[in-house]
Structure formats: C-alpha cells, structure tokens
Write a structure and sequence with these properties.
The complex is a heterodimer of chains A (92) and B (255). Chain A is 90% helix and 0% strand. Chain A has 3 helices and no strands. In chain A, helix 1 runs antiparallel to helix 2 and helix 2 runs antiparallel to helix 3. By secondary structure, chain B is an all-alpha fold. Chain B has one domain. Chain B has 10 helices and no strands. Chain B is globular, with a radius of gyration of 17 Å. Chains A and B meet through helix 1, helix 2 and helix 3 of A and helix 3, helix 4, helix 8 and helix 9 of B.
C-alpha cells in the first residue's frame, strides 16, 4: 500500500504529537490545572482533526496521480463531513 | 482507583474495537454512566473522541498488514455520510421506537447469519472486482447504516462490518480493518462538535486514551492471527446483544 504512505505518515505524526501532548498535559495538570487542561484540549483537537488533514493529503495524492475517480470520492467525503460539521455547529 | 478504572475501560474498548472493527462506544458510554456516574452527554462526547483514537491507531496497524481496502472504504463512506446527513434531518418525522424495532430485528437476523453461517463466500474482492449489483447493494446498505447512525446516534461499525461481509462478500479480516478505518472519519465530525460545546473531559479522555492505545495493539494482533470464522462468531454475539437491547428498547421493555 505504498500509495497511502503519505496519508499514514500524516496520521501517525498527528497521533504521536497528540499522545506526547496528552502525556505532557497530564503531568502538567498535577502542577498547574489550567495549563495542563489547555495542553490536553489542544491534543484532543489535533486528534479529532487528524482524519480531515489525512483526507486532504490523500485527495492531493490522487489528484497528482490523475486517479480522478477516487479523488472525487475523497472530496465528496471531505465536503460532506465538513458540511455536516458546519450544520451541527450552527444547528446547536 | 478511578484513573485505573478509566484506563481499564479504555483498554477493553480498544481491544474489542480494534478486534471487531467497531468504535467501542457501546462499551464506553454505559460504563462511564453506570460506574462513574458521568452525565450521558459528556459520556457520549468522551466516547466519540475515544472512537477516533481507536480508529486511527487500529488503521495504522492494519494498513501495515495490507488489510484495509481504502478505495472501498472511502467509496462506501460517501453513502454513509449522505445517509447520516439525511437521517439527522428526518429523525423527527419517524418515531424513535419504530426505528429501533425495525433495526433491532434486521440486526438480530444479521447476527444469526454471522454466527451460524459456516461458509460465507469470502473472496479477496476490491472495488474494481465487485459486480455492479454488489456495489449498488453496498451503497444502499451504507446509506441505510448512515441513516441509522444519524437517526439513532448509534455507531457505524456494528452496521458496517455485516454490510461488508454479508452483502459484499468481503473477507472478514478486511471488513473489520476497513470498518475500523471508516469509523474514524464519521466519529471525527461528531466528536469535534461535542468538543466545541464543551461536552468532553480532557483528563478523562487522557486516561481512556492510554488504555485504548494498549488495548488496540492487543486487539488488532488477535484479529491478524485469528481465524475468520472465530472473528465472525465473536462479532455475531456482540451484534446480537446490541440488537436485542435495541429491539427491547424499541418495544418498550426496560433494559
């Protein structure tokens, strides 16, 4: 699955960044509650946004390799997820 | 004591989630609510972030084993996303108990087929080699799974794996790995919304994630080594419990 390397490189990088931030945040929490919680929150944002970043990179990869059919699928998933997100945010 | 209990909840959710290609929300939410007395909305928010974590870390392991069919996953995710969007909008038109009864019955049937079928035709199929009829069946099934998700707020994995195995004839291990990848995309959206509204507890999530990380490593390695029929049966039993709970809730029996 060499073609998906770029996707998983970005996902893995984000995952490890999040794990490191969460670990640091947990330690910081016991020293200073406020700083600890903000670090952990940032890590959670990184975690939840990682599939979006991954999808963008995957889309870019398929576009570069002229696999337009899969590229359109990736774009549709991304847009629908984004629309759903906006809809839910405004709806609440 | 409480942090250890939370790590253990994460461990079992990660273990089952990665082993069966489901999110593990059906385990995290009731345990957080019943054992730790956490409000339902907060428990759902925490569970969704945990599902993203389970999905991302299982996907990394499964992709190294070439078990995920990314093209098929993304293709079916399109229908699921449209279904979820439709479902969340028409949820108010159909009474929840009717939906729960219908989905409960369908899922009990699917669980029996997963448990009892000794020989489900499993082939190394990809999006390109699937017949048009099967692709349409898969798209329809994914759309309905998405609608169920949007209407009833249930996770996608419990519906996605039977669709991939029973409707499309995809090998059980590939179905589990592909479903594990797909649930991350779906859960990330809902998880972000819950965080936006402050319905999450970063410290609880931190402890759950530690458990998930260990559980996923164990669970995914069990899946890689286990026989397909064993995985199907374990999945069928979990699905049966889940479906029975849904059916009983639908017909008004307290569970």
């Amino acid at each position: 699955m060499r073609e998906h390397r770029i996707y998983f490189k970005s996902m893995t990088a984000l995952l490890y960044m999040s794990i490191v931030s969460i670990s640091v945040g947990t330690i910081l929490y016991f020293i200073d509650k406020g700083i600890g919680l903000s670090t952990i929150s940032m890590a959670i944002y990184l975690l939840t946004l990682s599939p979006f970043v991954g999808l963008s990179l995957l889309g870019a990869y398929y576009l570069k390799n002229k696999d337009y059919k899969t590229f359109i699928n990736v774009v549709i998933v991304f847009l629908i997820a984004l629309l759903n997100l906006i809809n839910l945010l405004i709806g609440k | 004591m409480i942090p250890l209990a939370i790590v253990l909840i994460g461990f079992f959710a990660g273990l089952l989630g990665s082993m069966l290609g489901v999110g593990g929300g059906f385990l995290i939410v009731p345990l957080l609510v019943l054992l730790l007395d956490i409000p339902m909305h907060l428990a759902v928010g925490i569970s969704l972030t945990s599902v993203v974590m389970t999905s991302v870390s299982s996907s990394i392991i499964y992709s190294k084993e070439n078990l995920i069919d990314f093209k098929l996953g993304i293709f079916l995710e399109t229908a699921t996303a449209i279904g979820a969007l439709t479902g969340s909008h028409i949820a108010l038109l159909v009474p929840e108990n009717i939906l729960e009864t219908i989905f409960g019955v369908v899922l009990i049937y699917a669980s029996f087929r997963m448990i009892l079928s000794k020989r489900i035709k499993e082939e190394k199929k990809t999006l390109e080699t699937l017949s048009k009829k099967r692709i349409l069946l898969g798209l329809g099934g994914s759309f309905i799974a998405g609608m169920a998700s949007g209407m009833l707020g249930i996770g996608g994995g419990t519906l996605k794996v039977p669709i991939l195995v029973l409707l499309l004839g995809i090998a059980t291990k590939t179905a589990i790995a592909t479903s594990a990848f797909m649930i991350g995309v779906t859960a990330s959206v809902a998880s972000f919304v819950y965080q936006f509204h402050g319905l999450t507890d970063p410290l609880l999530v931190a402890f759950i994630i530690i458990g998930i990380f260990i559980g996923v490593r164990v669970g995914s390695h069990i899946t890689i080594k286990a026989k397909s029929i064993t995985l199907r049966r374990i999945f069928g039993i979990i699905l049966f419990i889940f479906a029975l709970r849904m059916l009983l809730k639908g017909i008004g029996v307290a569970v």
